[in-house]
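Supplementary Methods. Inverse-folding protocol.

Structures were first reduced to a discrete structure-token string of length 375. This string, shown here, constituted the complete conditioning input.
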């Protein structure tokens, strides 16, 4: 494994005051979104205390699109929406009350806490009232907030009000929770064309915001991924396979493709933390045969020896370039495939003899006049 890179979030000039107020309200030591770098021995991106992270401003809840709130308790889901990770413990939010039928108040607090004494927002009948607040979320894994609507005066039991909850750009991560970590990748190899279901084990605080890359190829976690396992389909291999020497036909030396190992990177899109496991996955080449580069074709040539006392001619191949096959045409309708043939002509005369010499790289032809004096 290579060292884990955990870059911090750059500060936004427009959000400095909000971050400071948010950190102060939560009793935090600082508002940086940096996380500690892990090590190659299996550590992960561990938060050093509570951390703040930016998200685009987003509307989490609007009762105007459904039923308005009635007097009493409501539970709203916040974490897991608008890029807010599932273990977030607080959000900076704008709360807006619309169309209250009677005077009253709303108290918004963590979904696993008891009702506090201080209301979050007060209003009169018919008023539109807004308030910015740091709203804590349930720490039991649900990431919810509870809303208590207290109506005052005649008609309080049946009164309704609409609530709009907008996250204005920041959320806080819970202190002491485990950060990003990668423990293993299985299987460790798959085909060149991709399509292998790969399981990455480790710690993934928010699978929905986790990104995976095989070298430079992105692979999104599939449905069913959890905080301890990511299921991804390997993308096709787009790199170059390493090669090694091999022995080919005819004793010639060739090359063959070897498996290519690539890095697997797991990153948290919200925190910016990433872990790269060097050479964690290998692509198997579709063609692992030994490929021999064809040699240059031979240059055909030959010598001939005749006797003045008979019709026999002896042929000696002198071709260069290591021919593997020979084809002789003696010019009298007879042929041979020997390297150095001996041919007995039936009568004296002058004949055109042709040799074709071939190897894996091609063929070459040489011709000469051969005179057989005869006896």
């Amino acid at each position: 494994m290579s060292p884990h890179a955990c870059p911090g979030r750059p500060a936004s000039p427009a959000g400095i005051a909000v971050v400071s107020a948010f950190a102060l309200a939560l009793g935090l030591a600082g508002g940086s979104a940096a996380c500690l770098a892990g090590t190659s021995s299996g550590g992960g991106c561990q938060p050093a205390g509570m951390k703040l992270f930016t998200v685009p401003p987003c509307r989490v809840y609007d009762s105007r699109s459904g039923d308005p709130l009635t007097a009493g308790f409501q539970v709203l889901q916040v974490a897991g929406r608008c890029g807010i990770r599932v273990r977030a413990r607080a959000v900076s939010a704008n709360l807006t009350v619309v169309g209250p039928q009677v005077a009253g108040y709303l108290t918004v607090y963590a979904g696993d806490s008891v009702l506090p004494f201080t209301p979050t927002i007060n209003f009169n009948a018919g008023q539109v009232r807004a308030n910015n607040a740091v709203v804590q979320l349930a720490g039991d894994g649900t990431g919810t907030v509870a809303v208590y609507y207290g109506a005052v005066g005649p008609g309080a039991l049946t009164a309704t009000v609409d609530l709009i909850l907008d996250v204005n750009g920041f959320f806080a991560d819970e202190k002491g929770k485990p950060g990003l970590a990668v423990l293993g990748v299985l299987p460790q190899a798959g085909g060149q064309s991709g399509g292998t279901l790969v399981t990455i084990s480790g710690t993934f605080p928010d699978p929905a915001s986790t990104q995976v890359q095989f070298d430079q190829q992105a692979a999104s976690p599939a449905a069913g991924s959890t905080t301890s396992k990511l299921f991804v389909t390997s993308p096709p291999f787009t790199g170059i396979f390493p090669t090694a020497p091999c022995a080919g036909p005819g004793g010639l030396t060739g090359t063959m493709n070897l498996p290519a190992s690539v890095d697997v990177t797991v990153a948290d899109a919200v925190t910016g933390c990433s872990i790269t496991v060097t050479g964690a996955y290998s692509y198997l080449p579709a063609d692992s045969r030994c490929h021999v580069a064809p040699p240059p074709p031979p240059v055909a040539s030959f010598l001939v020896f005749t006797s003045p006392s008979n019709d026999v001619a002896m042929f000696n191949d002198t071709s260069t370039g290591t021919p593997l096959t020979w084809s002789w045409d003696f010019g009298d309708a007879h042929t041979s495939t020997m390297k150095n043939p001996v041919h007995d002509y039936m009568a004296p005369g002058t004949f055109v003899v042709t040799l074709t010499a071939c190897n894996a790289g091609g063929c070459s032809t040489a011709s000469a006049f051969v005179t057989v004096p005869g006896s």
